[in-house]
Structure formats: C-alpha cells, structure tokens
Amino acid sequence: MDSNFYIGYILNKCFAVREALINAIAVSGPIDFLLKVFIL
What's the pTM? Predict the structure, then answer.
C-alpha cells in the first residue's frame, strides 16, 4: 500500500472520530460525554 494513501486514511479516520465526538457532545451534553469517556 502507498504510504501517502495510508497516512491519508489514518487522518480521515481521526477526523471522522473527532466529528463523531463533537456531535456526541452537542447532542448528549458534556456530563454524559465524560461518563462515556470513563466507561470506554
């Protein structure tokens, strides 16, 4: 696999996770988010 493609794939994964976390905070609120973090 091309290393540049792999790096791009990793970065896209990180951005997707970050977006999901932001959405989760916006929906459920920071306290619920902290509980989820500690559970995970």
Answer: 0.51
